[in-house]
Design goal:
about 300 residues; globular
């Protein structure tokens, strides 16, 4: 009988090295939002990859960083508790940027998780020349003894099968899958919709905004004719000036956000969506324990 392997894999790395893009590419469906803005991921999001010989449960975590707010501290704590429970840690480094202090800082943190096997993943190789990729592979191999070093491109799907095979080999044997055959994530419907809305806001806003933005869902209502779903959401920011940025002149920005967010939500629900977005100010919520709790952190 062929052995079956199943377990948990977490990708770590500086913000914006392609962890969420890689998670989505391996799962084959969008389970984690992506953005060029740092600290896009705020929860441990599980994406499930089904293979004939096993099941990979990918845990996409926030980027490890030196925190400046209570939210930042809580995100780092979330990463640490997640990494304490996974079987394999994949350390992601982009091929087109030299190793920096942030990468070395994260590599040092990996020593805190002796039970997890460590794999180095050089991402975005389609954005770098062969010499650059080779130099990065050498630089990464000098950091520590890795179980494997794998160069990949998530967007061009280069070497993703190799990565999946290597990760599966490192997982423990299991009597069967950890999640049902049709599961692709353990994220609930409200969480996924809130994330799609946050992703739409993050695209095209100023750098100061990403950390200050939180989205909650008030209600999801099915119309009697079943052809339309109404979604009522709140967008929280920390200052009135940020509220003005999101709404835009004459409401132009918030209309664009609604149109952009509706596409993935309709794809997820398989129906037309009426999306109501209300922008609210929760002053300095990133530093306020009570408000953080209310917003789900």
């Amino acid at each position: 009988m062929t052995e079956y392997r199943a377990g948990f894999v977490s990708f770590v790395g500086r913000p914006n090295v392609g962890k969420s893009t890689l998670t989505n590419a391996l799962v084959g469906e969008k389970v984690a939002i992506t953005s060029s803005k740092p600290q896009t991921t705020r929860r441990a999001i599980r994406g499930i990859v089904h293979q004939r010989g096993g099941q990979l449960v990918l845990v996409d975590t926030p980027g490890i960083h030196r925190p400046r707010t209570l939210l930042g501290e809580r995100l780092n704590t979330l990463v640490q508790s997640t990494l304490g429970d996974v079987d394999v840690i994949g350390f992601c480094v982009p091929a087109d940027e030299k190793l920096g202090p942030g990468d070395r800082f994260i590599n040092d943190q990996l020593d805190d998780y002796p039970n997890a096997k460590k794999v180095a993943i050089v991402t975005k190789i389609d954005a770098a020349g062969k010499t650059q990729v080779a130099q990065q592979l050498l630089a990464v191999s000098a950091l520590r003894e890795w179980e494997a070093i794998i160069p990949i491109s998530a967007t061009s799907r280069i070497q993703l099968d190799t990565l999946t095979t290597e990760l599966l080999k490192l997982l423990p044997e299991s009597p069967g899958p950890l999640y049902p055959d049709d599961a692709i994530t353990d994220e609930g419907l409200e969480e996924r919709i809130a994330e799609y809305i946050r992703e739409a806001v993050l695209e095209g806003v100023q750098d100061e905004l990403p950390h200050s933005l939180a989205v909650t869902i008030d209600d999801i209502v099915e119309r009697d004719d079943k052809d339309l779903v109404e979604v009522y959401a709140n967008l929280f920011v920390e200052r009135d000036s940020q509220k003005a940025i999101i709404i835009g002149k004459g409401g132009s920005r918030i209309r664009d956000v609604g149109a952009e967010a509706r596409k993935p939500i309709e794809e997820l629900l398989g129906r037309k969506v009426f999306l109501s977005l209300r922008v609210k100010v929760a002053k300095d919520w990133q530093r306020d324990p009570k408000q953080l709790g209310r917003l789900g952190f």
